[in-house]
Structures are given as C-alpha cells and as structure tokens.
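Hey L., structure's done. Input below.
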Amino acid sequence: MSVVAADAPFADWADAVRNRVERALEQALPESALVPQRLHQAMRYAVLGGGKRVRPLLTCAAGAVFAAPATALDQAACAVELIHAYSLVHDDLPCMDDDNLRRGKPTVHIAFDEATAMLVGDSLQSLAFALLSAPGLLADPAAQLAMAHQLAVASGSRGMAGGQAIDLDSVGVELSVPQLEHMHMHKTGALIRAAVNLGVGCGGALGTPAATALDRYAMAVGLAFQVVDDILDAEASTAELGKTAGKDEAANKPTYVSMLGITPARELAQTLHARALGALDDIDGDTTRLRQLAQTLLRRGA
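Output:
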C-alpha cells in the first residue's frame, strides 16, 4: 500500500487512493478466465481502467478524519464504486438512456451484448455487498451491518434506483426546481452520501455529531456534483466527457441548466460548495482532503 504524507499535494493523494482502489478492485473482481468467462470479462471491462473514482475518494477522505484502517476503507470504497459501475451499465442500456459511449469507450451492451450487460450490473451489485459483508471487515459487526444497510438503502427505490425512475418519468415534463432537487438527491446524491457515510463507519464514528455534519457535507456535495454535471453536459464535448455530450437536452430532460440557465446554475454550485465547507467547520478532525475534493468537483464546471 502506497503511503502519502498528510501534507502532500491533493493530486498526489488522489492518485495514491485511485491506484490503491484500482488494485483492490482488480483483486475483488473475478478473473476473466473463470467460468463464465464472458460475464467476468465484461465485469472487468465495466469497472477497471476508467472513471474518476469520486466516490472512493470521498470514502477515503471521510475515513481519514477518524483514522479509519486502510484495509476497511479499501473494501468500502470498492463496494460503493461497484454499485456506481453497475448503475452506469444499466443506465446506458437501450431501455434506459440508450447510450453507446462511457468513459471514452463503447458501453458494455455495445462491446458485449444487452443480456450480458444486464448480468454485469446484477453481478457487480451482489459483489459490492459481498465485500461489505465479509466477516471481520470491522471489529464491530453491528457497525459493519449498519454500513451494509446504508448502502442498500442508498442503492434502491429510496435512493439511486428511485431517482432514476423519477428521471425516466420526467422526460418532457416541466418540473419545479424543488422537484428536480428531490430527483437528484436520490439519483446522484444518495450514493455520494453513502460513500461518505461508509468512510465514517470505517472510522467507528457512525451516530456521532461529526457523522451528522459529514452527512450535511455529503448532501451539499452530491447536489453540487449533479449541477456541475448538467453544466458539463451543456458545454463540454464528447471527447472531454468520455460520454455523449448534449444527451439531456436531446432527450428533453429537465436539468439545472435548462431550468435556470448556465450562470445561475454556476452560482447554485458555488452556494452548495459553500454549504459543504460550512458543514466541515463543525468537525474537529482534519477535513483538508474533503475540502479539496469539494473544490475539485466544483472546478469541473468552472
């Protein structure tokens, strides 16, 4: 495991975490040669060698506030990233967003086939919970169970999947800004909150005032992340995004840009960023990496 000094530049820390999580994902995913080979090849194709690893970074940054053990953080970070990867595979299917490009390469159903893509998503989801429920991951089994419960709720109909259902129902529908926020607090925000809470759990801090403050941070960051995504979808190119640009507008989906305009959307992202940093002011531990992450996510749409 690579060790980065506490005062190292953010980029060095982030690269070290990404490399560590990448190795952990490589070990957790079944080898391509194992039967059924095509499914295992597609699982590895969907997960490895791409992505910003935002959720694992949030897990590790939150865990660092409480000196959480690296082994537990790696497993938790892998679990939340596997859930995220499965959601992307399913979102790209023709019955959902119908996209052919993800992370700069053909989507899983294009590179393999639709049936395999469905099974990839199913398998990545179950693997996530296998990792998080592994015996001995934490010294306190009750805390480990609470983390698995949080991730399950965040992934299901009261979280990410529910948000996607609302998104599909909202095509061509005029939403209010509060309705749009409700959708994205589930579709995008729920898993980002879970990523932070898993890091808190690895540090044994669930249920503490600091955990409550970090949850407020995660809610603000999760919504800001979506606002910036909407800005990028409107302004960035397909090459820059690694996925098809302008999809939301073409599909007549409500976004913060379509409802507010570019400049007000940027102002909202700034407000949410300030809200996230304000939540960190209530925490005694070292929140440097969380602050840097919030700033990095905001800069994506600057």
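DSSP finds 16 helices and two strands in the chain. The two ends are 34 Å apart (CA to CA).

-- N.
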